Model the fold of this input.
Amino acid sequence: MRVPMIAGNWKMNTTVSEAVELVRNMLPELEQIKNVDRVICPPFVSLSAVKELLKGSAVELGAQNMYFEEKGAYTGEVSPLMLAELCQYVIIGHSERRQYFGETGEIVNKKIIAALKVELKPILCIGEKLEENKAGRTKAVVTGQLEAALAGIKDISRLTIAYEPVWAIGTGLAATGGQANEIIGLIRSYISQQFNEDVAKDLRILYGGSVTADNTAEFMQQPEIDGALVGGASLKADQFLSIVKQTSEIRRF
Done:
């Protein structure tokens, strides 16, 4: 049985003091919720402070990005070795990284390989743009992104995939539960073909894109969806807690 995950991607929001306050407000209740892996992904500058707050708790920590080299003359970048001392997870290939910073499938692949090397757990983001969706190219785009990201990787047991249709991220226009479930089913089928059926059955695949407390139940009731990568709603303690609680109740095993 796949344990569901709710991960909060704070993006470029919160100062260190704001991050500490937000975690302090959520942590007591987050600690009480069972049957769900809870991950918080604040900006780089807050990782150390949030790590201290989470010490001894079951809530895990993730970074929003990383570079694929372990060290060197790469001013402003953060390496997997640096993150390995701070957190358990790292988001890789988010559509905003692809769109604004030119990340290609090759770069995403290098980052996943580098993260796995230091035993970080990558959350690989994939998803199609609106024009690709309207053109009926969702399957081709998603499988193409998977092929590029996973090239040469034999063991994906530490990997989580997040299907995030670009047209739904931050727009308020979420996919329906049925739409998300269908594409995530296609992703699982692709993994089964490229690896094997057992790997596909064990792989955790999340939905992301305008997830809120109001639409969480619709997604969590779908059999292929194993949780959510939450953006804006993760910055509101009541919203994030509601999303985690609903997931725990619906996906209880």
